[in-house]
C-alpha cells in the first residue's frame, strides 16, 4: 500500500477517534440539561468517571477480551488474550488492518466506544442512584459485559460466523447500554414526584433545555466519527455514503418525532424533537454502510416515531427514565439492527432472522448480567439514596458542592 494512503487512512481514523471522544461532552450536556440543577455535579462526576475508568479498564483487559484472536476451533464465545496492550509485529505498518490504521489507533478508537455503554445507563438512572453503586456497576459492565458481547461480532466470535451484522453498534453499543438502563430503572424505581397518587406521570422539567439542545448537536457531530470511523479507513466512496446516511437518518428521526408528538399532544415539544434526532442516529448505526439515502430517511423517520411511542410506553409501565435513554438506545437500537434485514444490501428473511437471533441473545445476556450486578449491589450496599438526599439534591449530599454557586452573595 502507498505510504500516503496509509497515512491518510490513519489520520482519518484519529480524527474520528477525537469526534467520538467529543461525544462525551454531548452526553454530559444532554444529561444535565434534561435533569434538575441540584444533581448537575453528580451527573458530571459520573460522566468523567466513565471516561477515565472506561479507558483504563479497556487498556487493562477490555481490549484483549473484545479482540482475543478467536481461532477456527474456538466456540467464539469467550477468550482472553492477556492483560495490558502491546503493539504486535507489524502493528505500525500497512500490514496491520489492511492499511486502515495502526495498532495504537485501533486501541484508542475502540476504547472511545467502550465507555459509551455506561454513559447510556448514567442518564437513565440519574437523580436517585448512589454514586458508589453506579461506579462499581460501571467497572463491571464496561470492563466485562461490553467487551464480551463485542467479541461475539467485532472480535470474530460466534455471531460473526452466523452472519450477524452491526456496522457501528446499534446493538453492540447502544442496546447493550439500553438493556442495562432498563434493568437499572426497574430496580431503582421512579423519582420522588414522578407519578401522582392516580398513577399518572408528571413532568419533571430539566433545568437547561439550551444545554440539552447543545448536547444533541454535539452528539450529531460526533456521530460522523462514530459511524464514519467504523468504515475503518478513509475509503472515499464508503465514508461519504456513511456520512450521508447518518446525517439523513438523524434529520428524518427528528422530523418524525416532531410530527407525531405534535399530532398526539398538540404542542411543539423540543425534547421529543431532540430525542428523535438521537433515535434516528441510533437506528441507522447498524447499517449505515448498506443503505441508500432513501432507505436511511425511512429508517430514521420510523425511529422518530418509535421515540414518541417508546416514551409513552415507558410512562405507562411506571418506569422513570429522565433522559429517554431506554427509548433512544434500546428501542431504536433494536429497530436499527432489525432494519438491516429489511432494507439495504443484506435485506432478506434469512438476514432478518439472524439479526433477530443476535438481538435476543445479546438482550438475554445483558439482562442477566445487569440483574446480577445491580442485584448484588442492591443487596450489599443499596442502589438508591434516601428520600431526603434525593429531594435536597445529590450535589449537596454526595459532593458537598453547588454547580451554580451564587457568587453575588459572597
Mean pLDDT, to the nearest integer, reads 95
**N- to C-terminal distance:** 64 Å
> What is the strand tally?
0
Content of β-strand: under 5%
Shape: globular
Class by SSE composition: mainly alpha
Quickly count the helices. 15
**Model regions low in confidence, pLDDT < 50 over at least 5 residues:** none
Largest sheet: none
SSE succession: HHHHHHHHHHHHHHH
Helix content: 55-70%
Radius of gyration, rounded? 21 Å
Give a nutshell description of this structure.
The protein has 410 residues and is mainly alpha-helical.
Question: What are the SSEs and their pairings?
Answer:
Layout lengths: L2 H31 L6 H27 L36 H12 L1 H9 L6 H23 L4 H5 L7 H19 L20 H20 L7 H30 L4 H16 L7 H24 L8 H15 L9 H32 L6 H6 L1 H6 L11
Helix pairs in contact: 1-2, 1-3, 1-8, 2-3, 2-4, 2-5, 4-7, 5-13, 7-12, 7-13, 8-9, 8-10, 9-10, 9-11, 10-11, 10-12, 11-12, 12-13
Amino acid at each position: 500500500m502507498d505510504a500516503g494512503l496509509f497515512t491518510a487512512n490513519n489520520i482519518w481514523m484519529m480524527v474520528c477517534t477525537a469526534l467520538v471522544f467529543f461525544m462525551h461532552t454531548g452526553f454530559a450536556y444532554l444529561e444535565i440539561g434534561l435533569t434538575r440543577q441540584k444533581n448537575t455535579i453528580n451527573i458530571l462526576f459520573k460522566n468523567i468517571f466513565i471516561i477515565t475508568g472506561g479507558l483504563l479498564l479497556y487498556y487493562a483487559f477490555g481490549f484483549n477480551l473484545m479482540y482475543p484472536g478467536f481461532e477456527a476451533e474456538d466456540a467464539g464465545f469467550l477468550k482472553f488474550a492477556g492483560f495490558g496492550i502491546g503493539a504486535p509485529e507489524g502493528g505500525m505498518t500497512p500490514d496491520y488492518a489492511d492499511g486502515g490504521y495502526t495498532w495504537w489507533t485501533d486501541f484508542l478508537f475502540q476504547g472511545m466506544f467502550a465507555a459509551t455503554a455506561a454513559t447510556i445507563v448514567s442518564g437513565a438512572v440519574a437523580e436517585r442512584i448512589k454514586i458508589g453503586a453506579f461506579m462499581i456497576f460501571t467497572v463491571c459492565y464496561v470492563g466485562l459485559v461490553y467487551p464480551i458481547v463485542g467479541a461475539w461480532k467485532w472480535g470474530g466470535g460466534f455471531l460473526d460466523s452466523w452472519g450477524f451484522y452491526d456496522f457501528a453498534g446499534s446493538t453492540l453499543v447502544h442496546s447493550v447500554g439500553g438493556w442495562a438502563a432498563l434493568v437499572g430503572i426497574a430496580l431503582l424505581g421512579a423519582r420522588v414526584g414522578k407519578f401522582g397518587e392516580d398513577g399518572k406521570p408528571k413532568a419533571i422539567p430539566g433545568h437547561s433545555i439550551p444545554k440539552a439542545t447543545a448536547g444533541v448537536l454535539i452528539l450529531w457531530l460526533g456521530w460522523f466519527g462514530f459511524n464514519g470511523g467504523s468504515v475503518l479507513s478513509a475509503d472515499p466512496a464508503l465514508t461519504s455514503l456513511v456520512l450521508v446516511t447518518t446525517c439523513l437518518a438523524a434529520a428524518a428521526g427528528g422530523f418524525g418525532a416532531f410530527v407525531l408528538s405534535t399530532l398526539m399532544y398538540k404542542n411543539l415539544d423540543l425534547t421529543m424533537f431532540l430525542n428523535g434526532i438521537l433515535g434516528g442516529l441510533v437506528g441507522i448505526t447498524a447499517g449505515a454502510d448498506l443503505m441508500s439515502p432513501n432507505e436511511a430517511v425511512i429508517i430514521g423517520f420510523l425511529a422518530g416515531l418509535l421515540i414518541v411511542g417508546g416514551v409513552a410506553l415507558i410512562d405507562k409501565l411506571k418506569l422513570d427514565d429522565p433522559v429517554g435513554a431506554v427509548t433512544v438506545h434500546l428501542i431504536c437500537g433494536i429497530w436499527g439492527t432489525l432494519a438491516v434485514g429489511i432494507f439495504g444490501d443484506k435485506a432478506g428473511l434469512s438476514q432478518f432472522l439472524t439479526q433477530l437471533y443476535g438481538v435476543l441473545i445479546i438482550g438475554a445476556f445483558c439482562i442477566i448480567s445487569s440483574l446480577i450486578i445491580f442485584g448484588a449491589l442492591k443487596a450489599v450496599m443499596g442502589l438508591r439514596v434516601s428520600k431526603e438526599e434525593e429531594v435536597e439534591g445529590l450535589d449537596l449530599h454526595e459532593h458537598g458542592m453547588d454547580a451554580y454557586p451564587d457568587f453575588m452573595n459572597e
